[in-house]
Amino acid sequence: MNLELPPVIAAFFHATNTREYADFLSLFTADAHVNDEANDYRGAEIAAWIDRATADTKPVTDVTAITCDGARYLVTADVSGNFPGSPVQLRYNFTLRDDKIATLLIRA
């Protein structure tokens, strides 16, 4: 199976695994939407979301599968960290626009 990610998605996982968020918002379109744990985040809220979501849990993501349909990518990953039930398998549904993340839906 080819696990080659588009550069912006690879950068997303690199940033979350290393918690290097200096340029994190540059991965997203200005009107981007993230839905994680049934909560919605838009625009600048995304930076606060990623800080909160990873500060204590320190997740490490290992991509296990990728499917693509045009600008939509479904990435399945094993996620481990300091949280109950670790590790878990999550599905990251990315929609890209102009080589940036326009939508990200994260589901168990």
Note down, in words, how this protein is organized:
The mean pLDDT is 96. The chain has 108 residues and is of the alpha+beta class. A six-stranded mixed sheet has the order 2-1-6-5-4-3, with helices on one face. 21% of the residues lie in helices and 46% in strands. It has a single domain (7-107), classed as Nuclear Transport Factor 2, Chain: A, CATH 3.10.450.
The averaged pLDDT comes out at 96
Order of helices and strands: HEEHEEEE
Helix content: 10-25%
Tell me the CATH architecture.
Roll
The figure for the number of domains is 1
Uncertain segments are: none
Number of strands: 6
Secondary structural class? alpha+beta
N→C terminal distance = 22 Å
Total of helices: 2
Q: Could you give a short account of the major beta sheet?
A: 6 strands, mixed
Shape assignment: globular
Strand content: over 45%
Rounded radius of gyration (Å): 13 Å
Please list the strands of the largest sheet in the order they lie side by side. 2-1-6-5-4-3
Q: What is the top-level CATH class? A: Alpha Beta
- Which fold name is given in CATH as the topology? Nuclear Transport Factor 2, Chain: A
